[in-house]
């Protein structure tokens, strides 16, 4: 198992804030919009340096999505910022008609996704957003794994022409990917090469998959770990190559098991290469109030759950 | 004036013929408010807008128009074709397979003149505000226009947008409301009353003007007046009274023709009341 270390923990939303600030420096067409969550989305640096390119919309997310769509018309690149719940479910039809169907170059940037929002509870913990967004034709869906990758992803989507959903979160987590990484949309990142089982993880679950891989190594199991930061378009080639080698797969996501990364992988495997799969994901449930760690344990998203899933799926290998 | 009022009225008559023939041909679509807004669209595209039919999405340096109540696509398509965005013969493809003239307007099929999809109601004003903000950022002095139905003001997003524009001094925006008092299920005052719209818009901080949208002279004058009010710190709201079905005696003033197509016989009677002034497509 390749050794991963970290010297600090940071939140992915701060990676977005840093990326947005850098994007503003690099491209004068970048504009930012926020629905009364500037501090939570870490947009302060952008606003300080580019006040004329920032729009405070107030608590009116539907209007924000429409304004963002309108801003694209003469070539602006709008980044909208609010919580994942208010970036997707609350404004689904606005995104569908004014952004996705209209082919507008809007970057929908969503913080506080998943259970790790913590104490605010289920009203704010969306676990359905990946599914909602990946179903929209032409929508790119990205869920990076740490601070550095989120910053790199924010810059990469600036250069991509078309609507993007960028999902990130609230808690501080290890920073373990390189600061100077090149982020390629739709390109899987090989975390660890192995032969016994493929573990595919996205977002906050990637570090947990690494911890699980270390435990599996102690048990004599050689896990291949892949970071799928782009859920759509899915890097089908990388996944098939790995599963053909290992013969089984575990998918890990901080999302409902319905509609998420796991189902995208299952669709690929049933059409291209049959192999047993286990889902480490929320089992069709809403969340609740507690600390992020307590919730990840209760909803079975811990490294121990990945280890158990790997052991289970390996038994089903032909 | 680029045209006399009488010339504009002639164009509007042809536009109404187009609307009815398009809806009749596929026995679907929304003729009522298309007829009611024919004078507004004619005044806008043939007299008021500074626009280029050699369409670019960005529309830098030209006025932009956004239609929020996308179901009145027949009148928009007719006016776009008649003002040179595409050939009038394409109107015959309305709502048919592989057409650029979808039931509700879209950018998806690349129809010149359309900059946003609309149809799901209540979204157009927000988009128009975004386009107006972009023009301000770029120092582009041209204007942005929007049209909304009155029924769709029941959608909450409109009121988010109505609150936003005055606060942010979006004074390069002229929004018109097709105030015909009708919606699919009946008169607005019976479905969900809009009450005193003028007072509501004024309370939100808009500069409100009123106009008769079925009087070519008056609607042209009202739009020119609206232009004179731009750049003064407030967005402009043109509360435009129209009659659904205007121009055809058996269609006027009722919600029954909101989304119903005329029969062969009804079309013949209706066309008999509308002069063919520029040649049917």
From TrEMBL, chain A:
Sorted UniProt keywords: Thiamine pyrophosphate
SUPFAM superfamilies: Thiamin diphosphate-binding fold (THDP-binding), TK C-terminal domain-like
Domain Transketolase-like pyrimidine-binding residue range list: 10-175
Reported cofactor(s): thiamine diphosphate
A Pfam cross-reference name: Transketolase_C
CDD domains found in the cross-reference section: TPP_PYR_DXS_TK_like (cd07033)
InterPro entries for this protein: PDH/Transketolase (IPR051157), THDP-binding (IPR029061), Transketo_C/PFOR_II (IPR009014), Transketolase-like_Pyr-bd (IPR005475), Transketolase_C (IPR033248)
Similarity field: Belongs to the transketolase family.
Protein name listed in UniProt: Transketolase family protein
Origin species: Pedobacter polaris
Lineage: Bacteria, Pseudomonadati, Bacteroidota, Sphingobacteriia, Sphingobacteriales
TrEMBL record, chain B:
Domain Transketolase N-terminal: 11-267
Cited Gene3D superfamilies: 3.40.50.970
Alphabetically ordered keywords of this record: Thiamine pyrophosphate
Matching SUPFAM superfamilies: Thiamin diphosphate-binding fold (THDP-binding)
Pfam families (alphabetical): Transketolase_N
Any coiled-coil regions, as ranges: none
InterPro entries hit by this protein: THDP-binding, Transketolase_N
Cofactor: thiamine diphosphate
The keyword Iron-sulfur appears for this protein: no
PANTHER family found in the cross-reference section: TRANSKETOLASE N-TERMINAL SECTION-RELATED (PTHR47514:SF1)
Similarity annotation: Belongs to the transketolase family.
Name by which UniProt lists this protein: Transketolase
């Amino acid at each position: 198992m390749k050794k991963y270390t970290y010297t600090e923990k940071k939140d992915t939303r701060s990676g977005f804030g840093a990326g947005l600030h850098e994007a503003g420096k690099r491209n004068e067409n970048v504009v930012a919009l926020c629905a009364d969550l500037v501090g939570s989305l870490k947009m302060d640096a952008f606003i300080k340096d580019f006040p004329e390119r920032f729009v405070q919309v107030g608590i009116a997310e539907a209007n924000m999505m429409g304004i963002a769509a309108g801003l694209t018309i003469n070539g602006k690149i709008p980044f909208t910022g609010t919580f994942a719940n208010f970036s997707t479910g609350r404004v689904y039809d606005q995104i569908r008609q004014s952004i996705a169907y209209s082919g507008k170059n809007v970057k929908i940037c969503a913080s506080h996704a998943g259970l790790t929002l913590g104490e605010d509870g289920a009203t704010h913990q969306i676990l359905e957003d990946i599914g909602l967004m990946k179903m929209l034709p032409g929508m790119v869906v990205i869920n990076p794994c740490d601070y550095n990758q989120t910053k790199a992803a924010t810059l990469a989507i600036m250069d991509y022409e078309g609507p993007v959903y960028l999902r990130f979160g609230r808690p501080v987590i290890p920073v373990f990917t390189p600061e100077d990484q090149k982020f390629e949309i739709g390109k899987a990142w090989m975390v660890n090469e192995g032969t016994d089982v493929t573990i595919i993880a996205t977002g906050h679950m990637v570090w947990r998959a690494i911890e699980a891989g270390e435990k599996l190594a102690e048990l004599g199991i050689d896990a291949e770990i892949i970071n799928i930061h782009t859920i759509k378009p899915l890097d089908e080639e990388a996944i098939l190559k790995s599963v053909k080698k290992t013969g089984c797969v575990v998918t890990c996501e901080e999302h409902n098991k319905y509609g998420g990364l796991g189902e995208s992988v299952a669709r690929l495997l049933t059409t291209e290469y049959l192999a047993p799969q286990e889902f480490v994901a929320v089992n069709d449930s809403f969340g609740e109030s507690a600390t992020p760690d307590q919730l990840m344990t209760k909803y079975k998203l811990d490294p121990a759950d990945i280890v158990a899933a790997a052991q289970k799926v390996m038994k089903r290998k032909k | 004036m680029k045209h006399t009022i009488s010339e504009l009225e002639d164009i509007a008559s042809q536009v109404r013929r187009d609307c009815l023939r398009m809806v009749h041909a596929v026995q679907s679509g929304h003729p009522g408010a298309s007829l009611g807004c024919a004078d507004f669209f004619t005044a806008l595209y043939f007299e008021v807008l500074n626009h280029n039919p050699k369409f670019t999405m960005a529309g830098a340096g030209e006025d932009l128009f956004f239609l929020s109540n996308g179901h009145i696509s027949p009148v928009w398509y007719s006016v776009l074709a008649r003002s040179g965005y595409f050939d009038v013969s394409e109107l015959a493809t309305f709502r048919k397979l592989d057409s650029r003239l979808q039931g509700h307007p879209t950018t998806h099929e690349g129809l010149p003149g359309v900059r946003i999809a609309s149809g799901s109601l209540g979204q157009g004003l927000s988009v128009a505000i975004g386009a107006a903000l972009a023009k301000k950022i770029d120092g582009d002095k041209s204007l942005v226009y929007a049209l909304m139905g009155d029924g769709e003001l029941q959608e909450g997003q409109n009121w988010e947008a109505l609150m936003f524009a005055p606060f942010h001094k979006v004074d390069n925006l002229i929004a018109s409301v097709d105030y015909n008092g009708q919606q699919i299920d009946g008169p607005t005052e019976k479905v969900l009353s809009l009450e005193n719209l003028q007072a509501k818009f004024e309370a939100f901080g808009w500069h409100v003007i009123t106009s008769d949208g079925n009087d070519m002279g008056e609607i042209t004058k009202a739009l020119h007046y609206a232009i004179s009010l731009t750049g003064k710190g407030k967005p402009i709201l043109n509360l435009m009274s129209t009659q659904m079905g205007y121009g055809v005696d058996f269609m006027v003033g009722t919600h029954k023709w909101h989304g119903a197509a005329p029969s062969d016989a009804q079309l013949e009677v209706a066309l008999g009341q509308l002069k063919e002034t520029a040649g049917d497509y």
